[in-house]
Specification:
Elements lengths: L3 E10 L4 E11 L4 E5 L6 H9 L6 E6 L2 E2 L10 E4 L11 H10 L5 H15 L14 H13 L5 E5 L7 H18 L2 E6 L2 H7 L2 E6 L2 E6 L1 H6 L4 H6 L6 E5 L2 E5 L15 E14 L2 E8 L4 E8 H4 L7 E7 L4 E3 L38
Parallel strand pairs: 3-8, 3-9, 6-7, 7-8
Antiparallel strand pairs: 1-2, 1-4, 4-5, 9-10, 11-12, 12-17, 13-14, 13-16, 14-15
Helix pairs in contact: 2-3, 2-4, 3-4
Length: 367
């Protein structure tokens, strides 16, 4: 088990004019699965490569299991890295790809054979050991890359978008495999992705990055429900959090946290008079594209498909949001107001990160 600590780490290029990683600090305890989430160019891969020793930091320190690692070459850090491309040797069989890191440290043939058999069984690729990478599917190549990384018994796993080459169905099953792998091995893991579904589903904590800086670090529930600023609010969620002007603040609320009251507006709810522009039906749910009438701001609402069937483009309605689910942001700095009300309770197991219990008053029924 290994901990990772980064203190004021910066990695710059072009004589300091380009800050790929800008004064980043974070601590990962033993056995944590932490996800670096950000768009392309946000600095997440450079941060990972700097931790691995593939890039040299311009300033700051890296501690692996309490030991300063800045001057250690990559091979001495006992880190296993899985790349987006998988980086398999095309001329070697699956067995030889998996055994390669063991051969470089001159382990005995018997030990190598035992480790390869163990890793192949763990990932269910025993039948593939004699094949070449070109004979494998994308999901099978990903398993081979993971087996090669794990066979070394690393102290730290670094994964750089390992699922981006897979289709949607394979990505879903691969996320389950990563969960299972982490539960079985307990290896401290840093995982890079631009996909928020991966981040929310895999990470015990998530670090949202932008322009080389960590914008917010917290649990998936905290990141989604309590965004630290408007960048995080607009980056997380599909659709992202709506932001509307209200006096000295921007009010934020998630698309699913609305309902359409019958009769008068209930107390402790914020009214949303809107004109419906378009309705998009997505199976069980529907997205309602609207204009918030007081400020002519475009917003997106989300509701069950059976309720959205009663609505139509061109109609005006007044929806509402419970006050407890509103978030206030400074329109100049983008930072969230410190005086916001507490976040709602964590969802029950089985609920998606964006789902909420019914917030309607018990005496009223939604449309």
């Amino acid at each position: 088990m290994t901990s990772l600590s980064i203190e004021h780490l910066s990695t710059t290029y072009d004589r300091g004019r380009v800050k790929a990683v800008d004064d980043v600090s974070l601590d990962m305890p033993d056995g944590e699965f932490l996800v670096l989430l950000g768009a392309s160019g946000s600095g997440k891969t450079t941060l990972m490569r700097t931790i691995a020793g593939l890039e040299r930091p311009s300033s700051g320190t890296i501690y692996i299991d309490g030991k300063l690692a800045n001057e250690q070459p990559p091979r001495q850090r006992n880190i296993a890295m899985v790349f987006q491309s998988y980086a398999l040797y095309p001329h070697k069989t699956v067995a030889k790809n998996i055994s390669f890191p063991l051969e470089t440290v001159h382990l005995s043939a018997t030990h190598i054979q035992e480790k390869v058999a163990w890793a192949a069984q763990l990932f269910g690729i025993e039948r593939l050991l004699k094949r070449k990478p070109r004979e494998l599917s994308g999901g099978e190549r990903q398993r081979v890359a993971l087996a090669r990384a794990l066979v070394r018994t690393p102290s730290l796993f670094l994964m750089d978008e390992p699922l981006s080459n897979l289709d949607a169905k394979l990505r879903h099953s691969a996320r389950r495999e990563f969960k299972r792998l982490h539960e079985q091995t307990g290896i401290t893991t840093l995982y890079v992705t631009h996909d928020q579904v991966e981040a929310m589903g895999l990470g015990q904590r998530v670090a949202v990055m932008n322009h080389g800086k960590i914008q917010q670090l917290g649990t998936p529930h905290e990141i989604y429900h309590e965004p630290a600023n408007t960048f995080v609010a607009q980056f997380m969620g599909s659709p992202p959090m709506n932001l509307i002007p209200d006096g000295d603040w921007l009010l934020g609320f998630h698309a699913e946290n609305i309902w359409l009251p019958e009769g008068e507006m209930p107390s402790q709810h914020y009214p949303l008079p809107v004109e419906i522009q378009q309705i998009e039906f997505l199976g069980a749910d529907a997205l309602i594209y609207c204009v918030f009438i007081p400020t002519h701001t475009d917003i997106i609402l989300k509701m069950p498909e059976r309720l959205a069937q009663k609505l139509a483009a061109g109609q005006t309605h007044t929806f509402c949001v419970p006050d407890t689910l509103l978030r206030r942001f400074d329109p100049e700095t983008g930072q969230r107001a410190a005086s916001d009300k507490p976040m709602p309770p964590a969802p029950d197991p089985g609920q998606s990160p964006g789902s909420f219990p019914d917030t309607r008053p018990s005496s009223r029924a939604g449309a």
